Amino acid sequence: MPPRLQPPPPPPPEPEPPTLHQLQESIRNLTAAFTDFRNTQDQRHTQYLTSIETLNTQVQTPPHSIPSSSHVIQGTPQHNQDNTLKPPKLRLLPFDGTNPLDWVFQANQFFTHYNIPNHQRLVHIASYMTGDALGWYQWMFNNHLISTWEAFTGALEVRFGPSTYDNHQQALFKLKQTTSVADYQRDFERLCNRVTGLSPIAIVDCFVSGLKFHIQNELAIHQPTTISQAIGLAKLIESKS
């Protein structure tokens, strides 16, 4: 006879459903865990915002003190707190008797920049004389021939400047270009500084009339209205020829 089959084992008993108390306890545990998680995230977010705010403050706020030289790396430029550039100090070169009109112009600009009035300029002027100019000034000073700044500059121009009998306006109108435009420009500006009362158009016409003929002909096409335009165009035409 074949063996008899054994009946299958009975299924395991189903777990009992959780009681209401167990469910409430599980909910409390989950709520507590979620609350801890939220608190941790809030703390991290607050720390992150604080760090960002600190960095922004450090970037926007300049340092209150300049580090000492022992803490500055050699070769690293040091800047002022406000990073503003101070204007350079002006210097007045000593006058030796050459280019008197140019020196008087520079002296007036120098003393005006430092707000030194005319009646105080003569006190400083001996320090800016050298060579023949110093000997001349010493003679004028000892003989009480200099009383005002205007009298000093006028006497200086008479002593060291071009002759008052020279007709600078006539020389300006007769000036002609013989070499380069740059050389002609230099001579033209030197004479033009000795002449007053010419209108801007008259200065342009005078400059153009002294140029070489082929440059004049091309400039007539462009018709420059300022001396800067006339000089620039003349140099451009010269470079192409």
TrEMBL record:
Record domain Ty3 transposon capsid-like protein: where: 109-234
One Pfam family, short name: Ty3_capsid
InterPro entries, per database record: Ty3_capsid
Coiled-coil portions: none
Record's compositionally biased regions (Low complexity): 62-71
Region feature (Disordered): 59-86
Annotated signal sequence range: none
Ranges of Polar residues composition bias in the record: 72-84
Name of the molecule in the record: Ty3 transposon capsid-like protein domain-containing protein
Organism: Trifolium medium
